[in-house]
């Protein structure tokens, strides 16, 4: 049987195939272009929040301003005697600190006084009350209306103070952040503090003291000893090639030209090494930051930390090392985060720090939510003041007139008492001479019957006759004033709360009901 024909070159082809396979396997074993591009993107997602580019997604409410407005409005309606207790003795237009000796019996006043004092400050000036009423669009209010809604506004303000007090107890100032504080917190974890320039020019704040003057001393260790304490150092470790590189290590994070300056890890990285790594990130775009969005960015990084027996690494490693060379690894290594360890990824300083900031953001967001709801209620109460003014005007005016009666009676009483001649006393229709045997002396007194009739006419605008309701001490006598009132007419007097009162609407009682309904 003749031999089978030979296929020339077949052995050579096999050799070539084997060589290609071996070359490919060798290449895959080294650091190649874009090996760390995912890690770079995740770390940049954190660095991009630094130096004021992140602003709070939710800001504080106007709770304090709304409360201050209500306190000012309430005080602008108050009697002058109330404003006077806030005046300094030697500077009448300036408010004083809480005088404990004068008001010791008011246990809650020390805590409330600072806000009252602030509200009183502008009102103590010559035109302060007028300006305050103009500010709150109540400048057209008459004195009668002002007096009549005073009690209601005081009650509304007290309710508002209670709402604010509860809100600030549940959401204290310490739970709130602002953009500047957020910037400081983020910079601490990303740059080791607020940098003088960005990218930072020096590595002093970026690292803790290295365990050795080599790449492992800066990028390798336990979560406690690893010198890479900031996000920026993690980026430098995974993206910057060692000075003794032999392949494409410099392209691990950027495949086109790579990072042109290598790092001699005998010392900390210089400004050029820091700058080229940080500039891989977007340092221009602004971001709104919430707890959820920060947690999402952080999870994008921690999800790339590869745990294995005896260690965990962020970035490509060939043999478990992070040397910055193609046959070692471009990574950050944590020797105590292996699969058998009980240590946590949040033990990494910058991971734990950013996680704590997310917790602070969530606390801030909850506090803002509470305060915004309280502010909404305070705005409703401010609107209620306007509603009281315009919906209760007829009753207010009538009640305000009644408020003037008692002082008028007191005035008449004093006028009678100063008369010392019988002829003058008898001429005064409101007075009577009590000692007929003498023509002079202190014998002139108030004629209660005449005064009552005058007070009734004043209180009803001259449209009612008869005795003043509040002079009656018995229910029968009080109700007898209504004997000539027709069915469709308003009563003259009414027996209310064991007293005889005028038939005009009892504003204080109505306002109390309004207060309960709020």
UniProtKB/TrEMBL annotation:
Principal location listed in the UniProt entry: membrane
Bilayer topology: Lipid-anchor; GPI-anchor
Subcellular location: Cell membrane
Keyword annotations: Cell membrane, Glycoprotein, GPI-anchor, Lipoprotein, Membrane, Signal
Pfam families (alphabetical): Trypan_glycop_C, VSG_B
Domain Trypanosome variant surface glycoprotein B-type N-terminal: 19-379
One GO term describing the cellular component: plasma membrane
Sequence ranges assigned to domain Trypanosome variant surface glycoprotein C-terminal in this UniProt record: 416-515
Signal peptide: 1-29
InterPro entries (UniProt xref): Trypano_VSG_B_N_dom, Variant_surf_glycoprt_trypan_C
Free-text function comment from the UniProt entry: VSG forms a coat on the surface of the parasite. The trypanosome evades the immune response of the host by expressing a series of antigenically distinct VSGs from an estimated 1000 VSG genes.
Protein name: Variant surface glycoprotein 1125.456
Species the sequence originates in: Trypanosoma brucei
